[in-house]
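Quick illustration, no need to memorize.
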Amino acid sequence: MDHKIDNGKIISQKKIKINKNDNATNLYFKTIKTASSQIIDIIKQIKSNQIKSKKQDNKSKNYLRKRTYHDGQINWSSSNHTIHNLIRALCYPYPNAHFKYKKKDIKVLKSSLGKNNNSNVEYGKIISINNNYFEVKCGISSIKIFKTNPKINLKLGDYL
């Protein structure tokens, strides 16, 4: 640590492979597993008085504002890829992507990409309902929503 934000020397850094189907939950647990092994290595370095460190590359730093709950609001006019990635990025341990339905906040816990490319359907419209999911028309294509909290009862043709 240093007197500035994110300015101290790096004493341990590991890459974590991110797979195509990973979400925030998978990455959270991958990070915990990797960090656990890093802590053991760091303790060994401290005990042997052989801490290795390197300066951070200040050229590649960027600072972002703190994410707010509003940032997780689903915009159905976005592409199905954008919405699916938002849902994956904000799952546990984060507060979940969400949308309003009948004035209630509905959290989306699981989704997959749909394939409905009918441009004559308005985005946000329920275009199919299955026992396991409902499908929503997006700005580009569609998205299948498998799990929400709370669960909601929708009808074909409803709008979100």
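The two ends are 46 Å apart (CA to CA).
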